[in-house]
């Protein structure tokens, strides 16, 4: 039997459980690895199935990323782990080159679940921005399923959302407005009673160890709790012009329109494209 979990109920239960079980503040770092699965399609007259498969394999490998979530009971920050291979994912075959920009390594996402706010470093068209806005709560559904992730017993939770988005590809004459239904699957452990998770996800009665969202999976591979040698410091982002999420999305849309005007109606042969994934 599935049980709906309203966000404030989860947070209240979490506070009570943390107070009773831990008796003191908890801090930690959780290290995640991301993998992505996606389909790349193109006119068979422009590229052979073997070339398409080669590009997919190149991109899948390069889009693997490592992240660290630093947290206490109220705050957290999320950041990509620095690595030599942390730049844009690139693939080429048959004269076609594709670049997928998954974000800068040094951008920080800060969440405060007590205030229900977040701060995030982003950029649009080369402009550094600092988004400050309220967190969007999710109505998680607890399924009752469980499994082991490392040394922890994890419980499954899901929620479904409908998002409005705009798409554009070379050769189109105008942007396409679409509605996407996305199901998010999270596995959290009550054994670490903090209401944090990777990226913008939060609100469950335990740390989210695994998250699946639209072909992308984030899974926790290592956890440090209450480390004494190197105490956890929660970093808040500072760079960029302060904007709301609504203002940020308007700037993204303007950037999309500029790209559309540049490539409107063109077949794209010989051009290089950059595709930004995520918010």
Share in β-strands? 35-45%
Give me the number of helical elements. 3
Number of strands: 16
How far apart the termini lie comes to: 33 Å
Content-based structural category: alpha+beta
Largest sheet: 13 strands, mixed
Can you tell me the residue ranges where pLDDT is under 50 for at least 5 consecutive residues?
A: 6-10, 15-23, 268-279
Mean pLDDT: 78
Radius of gyration, rounded?
Answer: 20 Å
Topology order in helix (H) and strand (E) letters: EHEHEEEEEEEEEEEEEHE
Number of domains: 1
Helix content: 10-25%
- The general outline is globular
Strand order of the largest sheet: 1-10-11-12-13-14-2-3-4-7-8-9-15
What attributes characterize this protein structure?
alpha+beta; GLPGLI; 279 residues; signal; three-stranded mixed beta sheet; disordered C terminus; GLPGLI family protein
Description:
The chain is of the alpha+beta class and 279 residues long. Helix content is 17%, strand content 43%. The strands form two sheets. A 13-stranded mixed β-sheet has the order 1-10-11-12-13-14-2-3-4-7-8-9-15. Strand 13 and strand 14 form a beta hairpin. The radius of gyration is 20 Å and the shape is globular. Residues 6-10, 15-23 and 268-279 have low confidence and may be disordered. It comes from Algoriphagus boseongensis. InterPro entries: GLPGLI. This is GLPGLI family protein.
What's this, in brief?
The chain is of the alpha+beta class.
Detail the topology: elements first, then pairings:
Elements: E1 3-5, H1 7-21, E2 28-36, H2 49-62, E3 65-71, E4 75-80, E5 89-93, E6 96-101, E7 108-112, E8 117-124, E9 127-134, E10 140-149, E11 152-167, E12 176-189, E13 207-213, E14 216-225, E15 241-243, H3 245-263, E16 273-276
């Amino acid at each position: 039997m599935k049980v709906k979990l309203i966000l404030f109920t989860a947070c209240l239960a979490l506070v009570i459980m943390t107070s009773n079980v831990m008796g003191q503040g908890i801090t930690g770092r959780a290290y995640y690895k991301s993998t992505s699965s996606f389909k790349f399609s193109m006119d068979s007259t422009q590229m052979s199935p073997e070339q398409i498969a080669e590009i997919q394999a190149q991109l899948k490998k390069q889009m693997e990323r490592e992240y660290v979530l630093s947290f206490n009971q109220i705050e957290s920050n999320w950041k990509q782990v620095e690595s030599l291979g942390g730049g844009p994912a690139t693939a080429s075959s048959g004269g076609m080159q594709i670049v997928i920009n998954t974000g800068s390594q040094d951008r920080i996402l800060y969440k405060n679940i007590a205030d229900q706010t977040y701060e995030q470093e982003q950029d649009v068209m080369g402009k550094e921005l600092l988004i400050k806005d309220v967190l969007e709560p999710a109505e998680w559904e607890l399924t009752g399923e469980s499994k082991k992730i490392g040394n922890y017993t994890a419980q499954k939770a899901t929620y479904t959302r409908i998002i409005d988005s705009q798409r554009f590809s070379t050769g189109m004459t105008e942007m396409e407005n679409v509605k996407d239904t996305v199901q998010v699957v999270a596995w959290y452990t009550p054994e670490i009673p903090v209401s944090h998770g990777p990226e913008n996800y939060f609100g469950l009665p335990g740390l989210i160890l695994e998250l699946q969202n639209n072909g992308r999976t984030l899974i926790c591979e290592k956890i440090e709790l209450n480390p004494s040698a190197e105490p956890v410091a929660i970093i808040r982002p500072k760079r960029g012009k302060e904007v709301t999420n609504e203002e940020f999305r308007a700037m993204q849309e303007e950037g999309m329109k500029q790209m559309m005007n540049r490539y409107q109606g063109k077949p794209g042969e010989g051009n290089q494209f950059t595709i930004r994934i995520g918010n």
